[in-house]
Amino acid sequence: MELELYLDELEKKLIRSFDILRNHRVDNEEYDLFARYHLRAEKYFLTKSAKIYAMENNEYILVKRVENLDTNEFKRFTDNMVRSIDELVELHDEHMSSIITGVILVDKPLNEIDGNVLRSIEKFRYHKGFSFGFKGWVDIRIILTSLEDGSNIANKKGREVSEIYGFTR
Fold first, then answer.
1. pTM above 0.90, yes or no
2. For the chain, domain boundaries
3. Looking at the DSSP assignment, which residues form a beta bridge with residue 30?
4. What is the pLDDT of residues 119-139, one digit of tens each?
């Protein structure tokens, strides 16, 4: 599948819940697609001026096509995901959680990708709490998708949503 066709299909899946931008920069890195979801919940006592609590949950999706995925390129991608936290996540008393999903697109089947890279993807974990969890936390999902056959592989957190990023021919 061509990159633009894949991005169009992904955008159709996400458009109802996410704000979507194409060719967007995050922390000086260019991504083919960037999507942002923001949920805010509040609890009141009798009137809106008597707010008991509020919480915010956010999700960010960063999709990038990679020509030659090797160990160094994967490390660079994950380092960019971690660095993007500073730009994407706004910490305040009402922040509960943020999830950053990094989607790597490759042109070849996954069985042609270096086995060390595939193992690194499956083993990748990132969870960070802010102020002992009182200002929420952030998790990072990593998903690798083949544009040739639609198969994908993900880390443990990414498996929760990996079927959204794959396709069948």
1. yes
2. 3-165
3. 25
4. 999 999 999 999 887 789 999
